[in-house]
């Protein structure tokens, strides 16, 4: 895994929004106009990359970009304009639920004839498809748990304590070699992938950017703390069965011991986390702030919606025997462990 002090390079722009944002970050031009923000497809490559760039300033930043831009007022105004469109689209497009229990009901029971990405990879996925999946997921997993950590100062009592306990596990229980981002980098090494933070951003399709932007959107806004808890609950509830299938896919294809270990670790850990999140994080939050129930349900629905969009994209591409990436993967590691 790369040195945590290293900053990723700015990616290639994908349209006028992301071009203007990258140019501004380099100190070489103006930000996009409100008209350009309004004209861009909300789930499209350009807007989602531009939004990702703004969010990334709150994580590692970029090489050659001034750290002070994290709180640049003009850039924050541009980000807010993109966020308003993104959030409005999610509220319109994600399924609506009458209650948190109703929202969770759809993900608590595993379908007998599941057809998602993890089912495909377990049953007939090839090593090149597992490599693509790992490259796409690296946008989150190399900073695993960080977007969810933003919610801790916004919780109190039972919800805060339970959330902190789960996050402690995500960060390796105090052991650097067991931090989940570290385990993901080891998985990538087994798959022959460059583990440099941000290395695969150029390869990631808009659908993958959407799933990561969703976490940052919810995590960086106190008003969306309920939605962030809903997102976290969805991740933990669906992780254990999905991880079991992906561990089987890694074993079947001979991906390597670290690749197997990452998912084996999540089968056990997330089965426990699911109970803690449902009982104490959600339960504690709604005990303190029952008015946030619709936001929690929305967080669940938006997570399912965005993950299904990504799954549909991957399965469509792979079903036709073509890559789901925008740029090809290198066949050898140039940086990493």
What does this protein structure show overall?
The protein has 337 residues and is an all-alpha fold. 63% of the residues lie in helices and 0% in strands. It contains 14 helices and no strands. The protein starts with 15 loop residues before the first helix and ends in an 18-residue tail after the last helix. The relative contact order is 0.15. The N terminus and C terminus are likely disordered.
Instruction: Report low-confidence residues grouped into runs of 5 or more.
Output: 1-5, 331-337
Helix content: 55-70%
From N to C, what is the helix and strand string? HHHHHHHHHHHHHH
Determine the strand fraction and express it as a percent band.
Answer: under 5%
Attribute tags:
single chain, 337 residues, mainly alpha, 14 helices, disordered C terminus
How is this fold's topology laid out?
Blueprint: H1 16-25, H2 34-39, H3 45-56, H4 73-93, H5 100-108, H6 117-124, H7 127-141, H8 146-149, H9 157-170, H10 180-190, H11 206-219, H12 225-253, H13 257-288, H14 293-319
Helix pairs in contact: 1-3, 3-4, 3-11, 5-14, 6-12, 7-10, 9-13, 10-13, 11-14, 12-13, 12-14
Task: Please provide a brief summary of the model.
With 337 residues, the protein is an all-alpha fold.
């Amino acid at each position: 895994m790369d040195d945590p002090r290293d900053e990723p390079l700015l990616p290639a722009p994908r349209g006028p929004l992301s071009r203007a944002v990258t140019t501004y970050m380099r100190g070489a031009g103006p930000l996009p106009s409100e008209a350009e923000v309004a004209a861009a497809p909300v789930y499209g490559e350009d807007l989602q990359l531009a939004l990702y760039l703004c969010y990334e300033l709150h994580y590692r930043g970029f090489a050659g970009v001034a750290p002070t831009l994290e709180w640049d007022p003009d850039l924050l105004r541009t980000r807010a304009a993109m966020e308003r469109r993104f959030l409005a689209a999610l509220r319109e497009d994600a399924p609506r639920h009458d209650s948190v229990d109703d929202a969770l009901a759809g993900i608590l029971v595993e379908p007998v004839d599941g057809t998602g990405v993890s089912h495909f990879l377990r049953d007939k996925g090839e090593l090149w498809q597992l490599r693509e999946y790992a490259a796409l997921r690296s946008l989150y997993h190399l900073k695993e748990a960080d977007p969810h950590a933003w919610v801790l100062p916004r919780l109190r009592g039972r919800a805060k304590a339970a959330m902190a306990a789960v996050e402690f596990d995500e960060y390796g229980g105090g052991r650097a070699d067991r931090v989940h981002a570290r385990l993901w980098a080891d998985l990538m090494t087994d798959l022959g992938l460059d583990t440099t933070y941000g290395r695969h951003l150029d390869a990631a399709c808009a659908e993958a950017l959407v799933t990561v932007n969703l976490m940052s959107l919810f995590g960086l806004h106190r008003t969306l703390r309920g939605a962030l808890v809903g997102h976290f609950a969805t991740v933990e509830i669906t992780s254990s069965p999905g991880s079991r299938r992906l561990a089987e896919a890694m074993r079947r294809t001979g991906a390597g011991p670290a690749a197997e270990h990452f998912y084996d670790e999540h089968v056990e850990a997330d089965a426990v986390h699911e109970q803690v999140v449902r009982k104490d994080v959600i339960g504690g939050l709604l005990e303190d702030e029952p008015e946030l129930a619709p936001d929690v349900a929305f967080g669940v629905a938006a997570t399912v919606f965005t993950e299904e969009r990504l799954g549909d994209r991957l399965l469509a591409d792979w079903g036709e025997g073509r890559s789901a990436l925008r740029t090809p993967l290198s066949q050898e590691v140039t940086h990493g462990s």
